[in-house]
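Re-running the complex after MR caught last week's input typo. The corrected sequence lines follow. Everything else is unchanged.
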Amino acid sequence: MTADGQWLTFLALLLPFAAAAIAPALTRALHHNAAWVLAIAPALIFLHFTGFVGPVSDGETLTGGYAWIPSLSVDFSWFLDGLSVTFALLISGIGTLIVLYAGGYLKGHEHQGRFFSFILMFMGSMLGLVVADSFLTLFVFWELTSITSFLLIGFDHSREASRRAALQALVVTGLGGLSLLAGLLVIWSATGVNSMSALLATESVLRDAPLYMAALLLILGGAFTKSAQFPFHFWLPNAMEAPTPVSAYLHSATMVKAGVYLLMRLNPVLGDTAAWETILPLFGGTTLLVGTLLAVRQTDLKLMLAYTTVASLGLLVMLTGVGSEKAVEAAVLYLVAHSMFKGALFMVAGLVDHESGTRDVTKLGGLRTAMPITFTAAVLAAASMGGVPLFFGFLAKEEIYAGLGFANGWTTMLTLVALAGNGLMFAIGFAVALKPFLGAKVETPKHAHEGPILLWLGPVVLGALGLVSALFSGVSHELVSSPMSSAVLGEAVTVTISTIPHIGMPLALSVVTVALGVLVFVMLGQGRAAMAGILNAIGWGPDKGFDQVMRGLTRVSFSVTNLIQNGRLDYYMTATFIAVAAAVLIPMGLYGEWPAVPSMPRMPFYEWTVLLIALIGLGAVIYARDRLTAIVSLGIQGFSVALIFMLLGAPDLSFTQFMVETLSVVILALVMTRLRLSPTDHRPTGEKVMDVAVAGTCGAALGLMLLRVTQVPFNSELSDFFTQYSRVLAHGRNIVNVILVDFRGTDTLGEIAVVMIAGLAILALVRVRSVKPIASKNGEG
Amino acid sequence: MAAESIDISDAMVIQPTTLGDWMIVAPVGVPILFAAILLMVRHETRLHAGIAITGLLLTLAANAALLLQVLADGPQVMTMGRWLPPFGISFVADALGASLAFVATLVAAVCALYAMKDIGATGRRYGFYPFVMALMAGVGGSFLTGDIFNLYVWFEVFLISSFGLLILGSTERQLDGATKYAILNLVGTTLFLTATAYLYGTFGTLNMADIARRVDAVRDTGPLMTLAVLYLLAFGMKAAAFPVNFWLPASYHTPRIVTAALFGGVLTKVGVYALLRVLVMMFPVERVELSGVIAWVAAGTMVLGIMGALAQSDVRRVLGFVVISGVGVMLAGLALGTEEGLTGTVLYAFHSILAMTALYLLAGVMKELGGSYSLHELGGLYRAYPAMGAFALILMLAVAGLPPASGLWPKILLVQASLESGLPWLALAILATGLLTTIALGRVYILAIWRNRPEGAPSGEPNARPGLGYVSLALLCIPIILLGVYPEPFIRIAETAAAGLLDPSAYIGAVFPVEAAQ
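Corrected-run output:
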């Protein structure tokens, strides 16, 4: 890529964020018409990426970027091939229509500017995700899509359902994001490369790596949560709490496909293994069936569509998992078709809701005359969704059946799953597109009429595109389907399927699908009742499970925290001193750092006497009945130690000790006379024994350590230095004094500061009276 | 021996102290000086904020100059009283100490600004600003001293200052919290002192560079494992590592919010710093032996910490546990001991200082605007104050380790380092902690920010003017975003710091230049 192109792509990737920054101000000025201006941003991006269609369809891949975090070898880099360019076009193209649609949909909303801002930020994140080359750039954008999705689902933040759905989506996709991060880091360490382009060039290194299974499962954790695979699908229908432009854009056309994108991107290096070809179809197929069956249950237009989105994502994962050339081509065709028709149908649902005041399919009917343009767009989209010939969805469906077939039991089963799923989706698609419009006119909360151009432009364009792209399938295959399929397969392939039906197995299956779909469509009411009965009988789903997990998590956290942090200082102290004893004794034992048994010291009788007095003092402290006695007894022990210092030839130290002991006894005794403390010990015997044991062990442990340290040959360099220079250089005869004020004067400075601050703290403690004491509710205030 | 016959150069530094060298002690000297000035004008409470902010900005400038000098020329040394090391007390600024001192001073300056509103005349008269200055002197001294007993002294300085800040106001719950804080911390500090006595008995020196260069020789004779474990416990208590972190949840929700902000940002990180300095630089072999234990402590701290946050409904209590959980994440790097892991720890420390202070200040603004700290009562903040939504979101993303904020890259570094060291379970713990943090803070976000104010809940202060709060938050959010969007320079500093710990030859060479040259 030339330097100029590099700049332009970089700007294109940043443009949505720039647009997001100006959106609020622009909306304040132009109100809903700001949409026309803001839509220029995605339109320009779309134009920029169309420039790559030519080279990419010739089989080129383009990389570019800038160094971002060289110390982590992370580049802000992109990788353009058929897969990423197609995604970029879908994101920017549908994004343009969505921005316009949002202009009409949220017209007059007080926070429309904020909404534009969020959705443009999402667009930038999604665009970054699909073009990212470096692993960590991809991860960053992946997380950003989760975060912007959180903001958009919770846009209507005063409603509890929105908040719950937003947090749920954040938690589920956040879980997946962490899994993805771990997966990418595992791939990085297994292969030594950290960009998609380099990884694709390694061919089968990853497949043969011992960490393959770990990498695969972690990556699938990311992809399955993002792309709402069973059993992580529940967040997606809940995300319908978001305003409809969000549902149309994030939760059908783009973001939820990020997981599928990731699988397709990694198919050449992760795919083609037994695990891949088992896990993906298994989860995808289950998701397809569960999604369609749950869709039958719904009456809300958006929820019906949401569950078919879940189903479609399942289908895509299943096809990617099968991994044969035809299956991948089918996945590619279906992905493109789905983005168009599902985006359109969501916008239709929103339009109906916006104009009529309801989106309950049982309360709608006969809108065809009031909303003819919407009706047309709906039918076009549903035709593609149902796989009617002449529409792009038809191509996809033919290719699906061709790709699966009846070669063996496994593919036969998958074909049947696809057949059932497609049939049900046909029925739901047409139910959304026809039921509100056909039949007798039903009174709706608002008097329905056709919406403004901002609202119908999007669905009409996408609906029509589903037809045009199929009619000119040669062009669309050459520009989109073939390059993308080649990128997913890792080798050049050409997609040839056209709208002209060929007699054969796929066509036969298509006919069966349509027949099944029509049957379900007619019997939708009964089907809905039946599904409702079954779901009520089960009575549990992953959505409830999510709540249970969250509640359980809080409960367990609460119990654990109250157990550890119970508010009782005596418990904290006991635990701390047990840790002290363990910290000395365990390493001493494990590493043989016990002291050697010392020989009996030879001491004159008066030293023995002083030692004995000290011990008696200690005994008296322990057995003292009241605190005053204990304090005085402690003084006995202290004075004895001071005497020992004196006898061992350290008069200065000894006198310091005398002073300290005298003062502490006096001050403590004074304090005690002012306090009314109960003279008796309330501790039960068990606690007393425990305290004795802990204190004794700590004392013994620290004593043993001291003994051990004294057995190390002492390095007297410092003492020698101080002795040598104390008088001659520091001009002081008392070495202790010289150490305090000169050699280590800085310590003394610090200690002086401590005394000063302590004084100030005491002043504050004594003088500041609290205005209103707050009663403590539980252990800790 | 007569004085005249003594060669002074055997005992003292002969070269005059350069101006640049004074930068090494300025981060300690300036705050002490300003603490003294503030005491002199104790009753002129209106002047306090201005004086303190000036002092902290000067300290910040000194820190910045020092950091730049260290990054350009390697560790800088100044030995007090001109006594040659190891006889005098050396101050040694390396990338680790200088960078942490800089970030800590930055948040202290922001706190001093926020305190203009949060601390009334009584609080000022009884020493709020002098306490803050003394606290920062202690913190700066801890980061910059090269002498382990002197480190103890600075620990004492900031401990007693923090105690003063904690009791300021004298409400019942404050005194309850302060009692637990003081007693448990004194145990920790005493343990530190005891360990240092043992250390002196074993090594005969207190200079950290001296210890680092002697440690291999002493290993045969000294009880170094026991010593290392004692330090691990003592500093683990300071850092609020499980299972010796009772003091933090018992006290951090009780003082004025700006005090909690300063504590939550700075204090535990000093403990983490001390662990890095002592275990990685001074006891490297022992750290390897202990890595398994530290890894479990790290995982326990991060997971139990964030579980504590999930169990709370008072925003301040939530944050106290989030602080703890972050300590666990930092300890993961200590357990790994690789350059990448330590880089992650240092980077996480930058992030945690900024983000935790900002979160506490956010809680303060929430209380001001929403009238409560309780998640049962808060609400309606987004509707009334959209800027709160933005600040809260950025900070939530920061602590959850999500883009585009500061927590992302240290988390990635630590996960990667864990995987490379063959500890996938530690990586899992870090990632799980991130998810649980998302849940804990996400809950705060949707309840306090998004939800409408519940019926009957207390309202915020009438005519609340959150301007100062917004400015304080913005000042912290800028570096937080910068760390997320363009982390390169910060990672480089953290890398230099980590490399300096793993190979302390430059540190030792700076303290003992002659011998290094031999």
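None of the earlier attempt is carried over here. Chain A has 32 helices and two strands. The first strand of chain A starts at residue 62 and ends at 69.
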